[in-house]
TrEMBL record:
Keywords: ATP-binding, Coiled coil, Nucleotide-binding. Residues 257-284 form a coiled coil. It comes from Aquisalibacillus elongatus. This is Lincosamide and streptogramin A transport system ATP-binding/permease protein. PROSITE patterns: ABC_TRANSPORTER_1 (PS00211), ABC_TRANSPORTER_2 (PS50893). It comes from the Bacteria. PANTHER family: ABC TRANSPORTER ATP-BINDING SUBUNIT, DRUG RESISTANCE ABC TRANSPORTER,ATP-BINDING PROTEIN.
């Protein structure tokens, strides 16, 4: 390692922006920190990493001799896993690679498999190993959890905890708390750098917001008092000026009106100060679920499994789902979670064993992984037939933290993955539903939206079938879990 990252007076905005994304940012980041980068979707986390890599023009200065390496960068050529690792690290020894594989619980024969044929979780682990084999690199790790199941997140979290010197962007609270020792939070009007984990940052943020609100209340009272005094003094001056022609009295009246203007100026300054205080508070609205309670049991599985080539995908399961229950399907990647979800929805006709009874209600909110890559706000808005539906959709997006300014000309805009997910989520929340079937809803969503979902689900008690790997979210809302274990003959 070769020193810290010293940022002075950093300013940046995209050409299409009116206000800058970053303004007068000053930071000193130590080379050994395990830094978690957090903030709302579209706030500029990936942009910040691109600035560090000198991929965007900015004002100010960044001084560092560190060699920044970005994750994920997938190989463009068809290579074995070993070739992928050696391409960036040609001098590394095989025993060093095998040591890292052991840390990630990957078998050594993965080295001789085609990288493009690995699962998403395996590719994620290999690309992280590729970064840390280079002890001169300072990794910039952008959303590493999207292809990882719960066990994979725990494994990668432990792996990162044994490393030093990197920045990780993630919205998974449990994942970050496994290893981070500093948090860099991109707020509405500021950037905070604190020592500690996500829990520490949340406590500090809540404390700062509480103090800001208390100061805001004091300012409101002072503004009201100043406004009353200004009006009173001004009225006295006007009355005195209109009631006399005496020059000395009129001079006194003018003096009083001048004082009233000075008080009004102080009032305006206080109003500006109050607005600046409010601007940096993350206002998180309460989400509304339009829940219709089903009248009957939704599903029942008895010694059930799905067959592939005559062999069960997972060990037989027994589970029931009743109204107002929230069932989460768990298991390692590749065990059949999404396949089971597709079977429940009726998208796949599959050979099965055991008994099942599935009675889905008509009103369903389905948020599926396969739909999450194709998002177009302009098309969504065009497809909505009523003005009321369009307004409700835009209001939901606003509640999820997307400024209405973004909606004025949505066609052709480049949306972040988190903003795209919010568009899907808002669509899934429209109208009334008896059953919510959501696959990986928390992927790419910022922490604030995850907190919103937790509060809303616990308030409205929807009936739900879901797959999700965000442990904090699942533990907070699940009433029932079913674990899919690999089938052993």
């Amino acid at each position: 390692m070769k020193g810290n990252i010293i940022i002075k007076s950093l300013c940046f905005k995209y050409i299409s922006m009116i206000n800058p994304m970053f303004q007068d940012v000053n930071l000193n980041i130590h080379e050994s920190w395990k830094l978690g980068l957090v903030g709302r979707n579209g706030r500029g986390k990936t942009t910040f990493l691109k600035i560090l890599m000198d991929q965007l023009d900015y004002e100010g200065s960044i001084h560092s001799n560190l060699e920044f390496e970005y994750f994920p960068i997938y190989p463009e050529k068809d290579l074995t896993t070993l070739d992928v690792l050696l391409e960036r690290n040609p001098l590394v020894e095989i025993w060093e690679i095998e040591r890292e594989l052991n840390y990630m619980e990957l078998s050594h024969d993965i080295l001789y498999r085609n990288f493009n044929q690995l699962s998403g979780g395996e590719q994620t682990k290999i690309l992280l190993i590729e970064l840390f084999l280079d002890d001169q690199a300072f990794p910039l790790i952008d959303e590493p959890t999207n292809n990882l199941d719960l066990h994979g997140r725990q494994m990668v979290g432990q792996y990162l905890n044994n490393k030093t010197g990197y920045i990780v962007v993630s919205h998974d609270e449990y994942f970050l708390n496994q290893f981070v020792d500093h948090i860099l939070a991109i707020n509405k009007e500021s950037i905070d750098l604190i020592a500690g984990d996500v829990d520490t940052w949340k406590t500090e943020k809540e404390r700062a917001d509480r103090l800001t609100k208390e100061k805001n209340e004091k300012l409101k009272g002072e503004i009201k008092r100043l406004d009353q005094v200004s009006r009173q003094v001004n009225n006295w001056g006007l009355q005195r000026e209109n009631s006399t022609k005496d020059s000395s009295e009129r001079r006194l009246a003018a003096k009083q009106m001048k004082r009233a203007k000075a008080i009004r100026k102080r009032t305006e300054e206080k109003v500006i100060e109050k607005e600046e205080l409010i601007d940096n508070i993350e206002e998180v609205s309460k989400l509304k679920f339009n829940v219709v309670r089903p009248q009957k049991q939704i599903l029942s599985f008895r010694e059930f499994s799905i067959l592939r080539g005559g062999v069960p995908l997972f060990s037989p399961i027994n589970v029931d789902l009743y109204p107002s229950e929230r069932l989460f399907i768990e298991g390692h990647n590749g065990v059949g979670k999404s396949t089971l979800l597709n079977f429940i929805i009726g998208e796949e006709k599959l050979e099965t064993i055991g008994e099942y009874d599935i009675k889905l209600p008509e009103q369903q909110s389905v948020l599926h992984q396969k739909n999450q890559g194709r998002v177009d706000l302009h098309s969504y808005l065009q497809s909505m037939t009523s003005k009321e539906e369009k307004e409700e959709y835009l209001y939901l997006l606003h509640q999820l933290g997307m400024s209405r300014k973004l909606f004025s000309s949505p066609q052709g805009k480049q949306w972040s993955s988190g903003e795209k997910k919010k568009m899907l989520l808002a669509k899934a929340l429209l109208n009334h539903h008896q059953l919510f079937i959501w696959d990986e809803v928390t992927n790419s969503l910022d922490l604030f939206v995850i907190y919103q979902l937790i509060d809303a689900i616990n308030d409205y008690q929807p009936t739900m079938i879901s797959v999700d790997h965000n442990e904090h979210y699942v533990d907070a809302v699940a009433t029932k879990k079913v674990l899919l274990d690999p089938y052993n003959k």
